[in-house]
Structures are given as C-alpha cells and as structure tokens.
Write a structure and sequence with these properties.
four-stranded antiparallel sheet, alpha+beta, 347 residues, homotrimer, 18% helix
C-alpha cells in the first residue's frame, strides 16, 4: 500500500547540514525526497542547488568544486552558487541562459548549521529559528544528529511525549510502578504549541539522581514550533537548566533527520555532563527510532494512519493540526490569545 | 506489473499456527497479508488480534503478555483476548471505549492446530474442518508445515495433480517411460471436488516398492474442500492406508503456508514410516515450491494468469471455479447431485 | 516515481545473443522486459519463443532441449522452433492446438550473432543490419558485449558524443586543456543520422599516440541507424581504419546491452591491436556505464527527462526524434534529401 503523504511545509527553513560538513567537496542531501547538493565557494559562501545537472540530469554532487563554481562530471558544465550556468566546454556560444540554470535554494549559515529554504528559486519571507541559550555564557553545548524512519509529526510527538517514557525507556528515567499525579497545561498559539508540567517531582531514574542528587521541584516545558522544531526545557532547582532543541529535517516523507543542539547549565563541569548525556541520549533515541520505524511500517502496510488518542496524548494531535494548517498556508492569527487546556495525569 | 488478486474467501477458517507455537510470547502471523498477533492468556485461551495497536499503530507482537492481557511496548496499552482495551497508563479516565479496541479474530483450537476466522470482529457461521483419521487408533500421525510463494489455487492444483509427478519429480515415484492407462472420475459438489483414480497399479518408484513390496491395486482419491483443504487418500491393498490432509493458509496472496497432517496405517512400525516419509515428502515439496515460485514470477511479470488446460488437468480448473464462486458468496446448492465426468489418461 | 517509457520500436531486429551462446541448453534473454528463450534444434536451427509455457506459465528456459523440441520442466509439454506444441504427456488427445502454442519470434543468424524480430508471431518486413568490414580481408575483428542501465537513446547519444570525452574520460584520449576548433556537419536521413568531423587533428591522448605515431588528418564519422545501431568510423592517415559498430538491445526500458563488433585495419599486427584496444575500450565504457546509470537514477527520481541541449549536443536530439517517429510507424521519406547543418566547436 502507499502510505499517505504527510503535510509538506515548503515556505520554511530546514537544516541541511552542520556548517563543518560543507567544504570544497560537494555534499549530497535530500529534502522532501529531492536531491540537493551543497558546496562552499572560495569566498566561503555556501551554495545549495537541486542535485541534477540541467543538461543531462547527472547529479552535480558527482562533480567537483572549481573556484566559485560546481562542475558537472559528465560534460563539464559549471554553475555558481546562484545556480547560473557560467561555462559550457566545447560550446562557442554564451553559457548563461536561464534554461540552463540549476534550481537553487536560499541558504543561511548561523550557529554552526546551514539552513535551506524548502522552495527552490524563491525568496525567504522570514529568518531561520534561533537556537536558545547556545551563545549564552555558562552553558555547555552538545550537538548531534540522528535519523528516524518516520514523519516529522510522528518524530515530534514522540520527542515531546511523556507517557511512553515509562514503558519504552522503562528504567532509564521513569519507572512504570512509580507514579506521580501532575498537572499539565497545554497552550497552542498560531505557530507553536507547548505543554507546561506543573508539580512534577524530580524524576526517580538513574540519570536523574546523578544530575540532581539533592532533589528539588522540576520546571518542565515541551514545545513544538512550526514547522519542524521540538524543544524540551527542564530546570531542576535553581542550578540545573537544560534546553534541548532539535530541528527536524524531512529528508523524505518517512525519513527525518534531527539536528539536536543541547544547551546545558549544571553544577558539574560541562565535560562530565557531555560525557554522561550523549550516550544516554543516543540510547534513548535508539529505542525511539526503532518504535518509530515500526509505526511507519504499519502506516505503509495499511496505507493510512488510524490513531485513537486520549487526553494524555498532550501534544501530538496539536502538532499535526498545526502542520496541516501550515501546509495550506493558513498561518492563523498571531494576535489571538492561545488556546489553553489543563488536565491531570500520572507521570 | 501487478499480479491479479486471487480469490479471497473471508467467511472461513484458516490455520494460524500449531497449538504448541502459541505461548506466553506474542506470535506474529499474517492472513491475506494482514498482520495478526496470537497470544495465550493465563487461563489457556488463545487470543488473535489485528497486530496494530489502535493508539499509534505499533505491532502488538512487539509487546508482552501480562496476565490475561497483551501489552503494547510503546505506551503500555493493555488488551484482553476479546480485543478490549483494559488499561491505559498515565490516563485517569476509563480505558474501555470501543474506539480503542483492537480488531479481534474468532479462534478455535483443536487437533493440535489454532484456527482463526478470516473476517475480524465477526461471528463464525460454522466450525473448522476436521482432520480425518488423526484421532483413530492404529494410525501414526505426522505433522509438518511448509510454505510456497504461490496462490492457494496454484498450490492446491499442484498438490493434487498427477501428470507433473513423472516430470518434476522424475524417478522419485513415477517415471516418464512407464505408463499405465487409468480411468479418472471427477465429482464436483457445491463445496468440494474429488477425483477417483480407477485401476491404478502400484506405483513403480523406489519409495512405493519400500512401502508395498507385495504390490496390489491402489485406491486413490484426491480431494479439495473449500476454501483451503487438499487431501490425498491412498490405500494399497488392505494393509496400507494413507490420508494426507493439508490446510492451506493464505499468509498473503502469493504466499501460502500448508499445515500438513498425515494419518498413516501400514504393516511397518510407525516410527519407520515417519522416518522414511518426512524427508521424502519434504524433498518432493521442495521441487514443487520451486516450480510454484517460478509460476508466480511469471504471473507477476505478465500481470495475469493465462493457462491452456487439457482434460488431464483434472482438478485445477474446478478448484479455481469453486474459489471464485465462494468469494462472491455463492455457496451453491448442497442438495444437488454432483457434477461428474470420467476420462482416461496415461499415468 | 515512474520513469517515462522510452520509445519502443517493435517492427525491428535486435541482437539476442552471440551465435556461440545458443546451444543445446535453453538460453534465457529479455527484450523490452519480456522473457525470451532461445534454443538450437538438432538440425542447427535456432528457435526463439516467449519464455512462458502456455500451460501453466513456467519459464521454458527451466526445461531441456529434447531433439528438435524444448520440453517444459513442470508437465513435460514439448514445443518445436515454430512454437507449436507437439506433445503433452498423459494426455490421450492431439497436442497441436493453436491455443497451446508458445509465442515465437522470427530469427536470423549471421555474422556470428542471433537476431530476433521484436514482434512475436509476426513476419519480418526487412533483413537485419549488416556489420560493415567484418568479412573484409585485412581487417581484424573484435567482439564484446557490455551492458548499461539506461535507455537506447541515452546509450546511443553517449556513444556518439564528443564533448564529454575530455571530462568523463579526461586524460584517456582527449584533454580539457588542449582544444582544437573543428567543423561538424550533421546529416539526418529518414532512418539514420550522422556527423562528420572536419579538420580534426590527430587526438593527443596516450592511445592515439600509440596507434598513429606519425600523426595525420583524421577522418571521423559518428552514425546512428534506426532503431538501435551506433557506429564510429575513424581513419587516421591512409593506413589506419577503424569501424566500431554496436547493436543496442533493449533488454528492458532502462537496461541496454551493446553487442559491439569492431573491424580494424592498422599497420600493427591485429593481435597487438586487439590486446591494446579491448581493455582500453572496456575502461572507457565502464566510466560511461556509471554516468548513464546516474542519469537513469535521476530520470526515475523525477519521473521525467528534462534536458537542456546546446549546438554541441550534435546527435542526441536527432536520435530521440528518429526513435519517436519510428515508434509511431512514421518512417519518413527515403527519397528526400538529408537535413543538414554545419557548426563549429572546440574539441
């Protein structure tokens, strides 16, 4: 069966790669399934072109960077970072005709990542998302990218979902047999949704005890920003503050890469925090990626997503609603008060 | 090309597994391509549910059996053998709403096999097929399941076809150069078809000589019962009686599992008969499975089945006719006399 | 995405195999994706049948040749080189009914190759292409077949394209930095197109220096003959004459086999020429096959071919035009003067 196409939000920025990955070798990526080639010119600018030579369709990423241009390996056509064809070997006429240009994607490079605008040959209407606390003194920063065979809405729901942690990650940071009644307040704006967890005690798992031995009330927000950002913010007592933000890139409809940037402030040296957090986070994510792939396999088999939700599916349905609206260009009213709902659950 | 969809007969029982295969670990199977999970509750009952959690689509077979319930591995939703959702962790409301139930399949466990009714959430209108002679004194019973990449009608025709044995299984039990003129009487009722072979001498191959060294006229019936049972009954003289019945399960349209149950009475100790019969049968079936897979590959390539039959294709066309009728709910008239035809052939 | 179907020219001969490949074992090939079985009868004739037994669809190439007939491995049906069913084991009636015949393809065997006519059960309207100079004294002949995952029009354009040689095969026989202004005259008839390169100096690469150390003006023609023949003719001075002809067989839409026959006359012993030419040609072709597979992958991804051509794409657009015409049965006017165009380029 064909799986349904998830919402596409094209008037938006997505992370194509980390800055250090684009050099003088062409870098091949995909966005919504389409191939993109990134390269850095001698002046340091990053170009992002559709990875198909307009001449005979050969991926430009098979070619090489020559000065400020990307050269196709088949006939040697050369393109600049704007996609313009600048040279055609053997040919005595002028190379620069519009029909010979490669489709180009707008690019922004900041905070160590390269963003591309998901509509080719288009001018961006806003700037990319800003990773919070990354540039702030006192915060250690950890970066990592991971991949899941699932849609952005499945990945984002999973990343911000509390109830599954006791089962799928049983013992790692929540345990099924220890439950606390907490309040959850969901607030949905036109372009984002968040949940605040109120009265949550310090988690009881192993890692929580290592990070915050003395206990203390937890401040905890889970957030989704259209069209692709998930963010978990935790404060334990006054000393510990974690803001983990991941930009989800739809490499394909059921293939999402998460570019995660964690900003951490604790009473421990940052090197220790990084050493502990990274393998722990990757282990958690490995379990999530496996279950998400199983969810995708079901969607492919049945050709549809049929989900029965309850109140404790706090954010998933809102995320999908926002994405479906955004796909159709309905960006809502920025001046409206947020939609708000408070429920209780056992976490 | 897309291969044509073979007839589906859904108001019917199919074998899902042997009894001993369903225990406290969930067991994943497929029926007409759909995933089914089987599990045994503490009381010994077998449950069969569609292998998709109604919550987020995760296969329930990834979960675990907890008491009388099957628990999903993602969020811990729990289902009983009737498919009812009995518990949702974290959630403070009542779990048991119909929209949260898993689709369930009626189950019968008897004679060492587990049957499921191929329409979910449906009440069976009759009971499963009874394996003949299995419970009768003096009969040794051999069970084995094998798999073929072919439709039920191709598998059933092959299992009951005489002419191919001299070629495909040349030398194993019939030889092309030794031919006997025999009479074949085909009788088709509303729900089954059989062929009686009249005047067939003892086969001349190796195994036949071992089983019946003294010779004797053979009584031989081949039978198909709607929608999935093939049966070969042989008697050689008065001492030897073999009834081999196989229930064909459409795991998918072109993937059929045969649950074969052989009831055997001979003058040899049953342990010797089993030891000889099983490897011989598996070798024969291996050749059949290979040719059936080639037949399926042709059907996929050309997107259709185009078959030229002759009189000596005794049962295949009748099997397909019965299946096509049954698919459309036309069960014929049980009171009518059977359709009968007698032909001669060289076997 | 589905790649577009390239033009099919069915009223035409294609090479199925080299003569020495058809013996007493059935040989399986494909043409436009359809399976064909070739076999040689005791009288030496070659039969070519659709590789599907009319009885139950089993590939006849799984069977064996018995005398003048091909026998199916499932039930032993036997077919002669005309496709007529001549024997059905077990069956007491007459085998030879038209509904039991296998589809057959007309065959010609000459110059060491076996040609089949691409429309089954059809009478050819003309004879196959004649390989030039192959039978002429003084010429060494080298034969080789290679395969590319690409359409005939992509393969033919590539084989006859000059500008890519400096890039894709950089250093092997042309170098990007050494350019000569030459004239190219393209002539298109109703059934073929050629380009003559005028004023081309001796190539400067390694192999060219070996073959023609004393230099001399080059005569060079590239030719395409409908629907599948590419030919490169080179003369260097008066002593060296190379005619390399390849018959392209559409095994499938994006899988083309080239049966190349090179006729060579030089001042060197033919054994030396063969020893040098073959590995060089195979190395060149390996680079071409890799770039053609990349071109095909792009076509599959985007579901279309979008090509921007310039004047120096001398033959490709004409080849596609001739194929599209021929597919629709428009064979043009053989009496018309050729369409002619002269351009200059740097080669």
């Amino acid at each position: 069966m064909n799986a349904p196409r998830p919402p596409h939000v094209r008037k938006a920025w997505y992370v194509a790669c980390w800055s250090h990955e684009v050099g003088r070798q062409p870098l091949a990526r995909t966005l919504y399934g389409d191939p993109i080639v990134l390269f850095r010119s001698t002046s340091g600018d990053v170009g992002a072109l559709l990875d198909r030579c307009p001449h005979r369709g050969i991926p430009l990423s098979r070619g090489e960077v020559a000065g400020d241009r990307l050269r196709c390996s088949y006939h040697g056509w050369e393109f600049d970072t704007a996609g313009t064809c600048r040279h055609i070997p053997s040919y005595l006429g002028s190379a620069e005709k519009s029909g010979r240009a490669a489709n180009r994607f707008a690019v922004r490079e900041r905070q160590g990542v390269v963003w591309v605008w998901a509509t080719p040959d288009d001018e961006p209407t806003h700037e990319p998302f800003d990773f919070a606390y990354v540039d702030k003194p006192g915060y250690a920063v950890v970066r990592e990218d991971v991949r899941a065979n699932a849609t952005i809405h499945a990945v984002a729901e999973n990343a911000l979902d509390v109830p599954h942690t006791a089962f799928l990650h049983g013992g790692l940071f929540r345990r099924p047999e220890v439950r606390n009644r907490i309040a959850c307040e969901v607030r949905r704006w036109h372009d984002r949704v968040e949940c605040e967890y109120i009265g949550e005690p310090r988690p009881t798992g192993l890692v929580a005890r290592l990070i915050s031995p003395s206990g203390g009330v937890v401040t905890h927000f889970d957030r989704f920003f259209l069209p692709s950002i998930v963010q978990v913010e935790y404060a334990i007592g006054t000393e510990n503050h974690f803001v983990i933000t991941a930009a989800c890139t739809p490499c394909d409809d059921y293939d999402t890469r998460l570019y995660a940037v964690a900003a951490l402030r604790t009473r421990f040296p940052s090197s220790i925090v990084k050493t502990v957090l990274k393998p722990f986070g990757l282990r958690i994510f490995g379990q999530d990626a496996e279950i998400l792939a199983a969810q995708t396999a079901t969607t492919h088999h049945f050709g549809e997503e049929v989900y029965a939700s309850t109140d404790v599916d706090l954010l998933g349905p809102h995320i999908l609603k926002l994405l479906l609206r955004a796909e159709h260009g309905d960006l809502g009213n920025p001046k409206e008060e947020p939609w708000t709902r408070r429920i209780e659950m056992d976490a």
